[in-house]
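Lecture notes, part 5. Sequence design as translation. It can be helpful to think of inverse folding as translation between two languages: the language of shapes and the language of residues. The source text, in structure tokens, appears below.
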């Protein structure tokens, strides 16, 4: 039993170090992104949102929502913040696998992004693992707006259930 605990502790320590390096990489990517690389900025935005969700960091997730957010269900920024808090409260462990389907720029300060997201209670490293995991699969259609030089926020979102096929 003691050996099993040490192995689990070692795995947990490795997982924490991996997350630390991932976070550092995301920060460096965000700091080094060029103003002329908006697609890179959007990919970093999605990665930051994924990391914040896995860390259950409601404050960071709230910062990604624009003050003028509105969606077809009538949610505003405050309603989305409440949904974020509720999701974090209900789930002690959140693991997210994302796939960016498309990124379009109808205007330089506006991006339309389709993201597939799998939300699971345990780590999922690839789409191949989704078949054997109990995960909620979603398609998010996002409208992002640029706030500042390389800060993006969600101004509008729509989501619906996705299927496994959407992740390939």
């Amino acid at each position: 039993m003691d050996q099993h605990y040490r192995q689990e502790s070692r795995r947990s320590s490795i997982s924490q170090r991996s997350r630390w390096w991932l976070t550092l990489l995301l920060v460096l990517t965000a700091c080094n992104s060029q103003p002329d690389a908006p697609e890179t900025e959007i990919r970093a935005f999605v990665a930051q949102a994924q990391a914040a969700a896995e860390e259950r960091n409601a404050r960071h997730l709230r910062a990604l929502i624009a003050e003028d957010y509105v969606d077809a269900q009538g949610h505003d920024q405050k309603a989305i913040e409440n949904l974020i808090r509720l999701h974090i409260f209900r789930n002690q462990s959140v693991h997210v696998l994302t796939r960016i389907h498309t990124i379009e720029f109808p205007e330089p300060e506006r991006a339309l992004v389709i993201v597939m997201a799998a939300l699971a209670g345990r780590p999922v490293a690839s789409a191949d693992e989704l078949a054997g995991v109990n995960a909620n699969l979603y398609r998010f259609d996002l409208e992002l707006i640029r706030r500042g030089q390389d800060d993006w926020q969600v101004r509008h979102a729509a989501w619906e259930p996705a299927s496994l096929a959407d992740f390939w």
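The translated text above is only one of many valid answers, since several sequences can fold into similar shapes. Helices lie at 2-32, 38-54, 58-63, 77-90.
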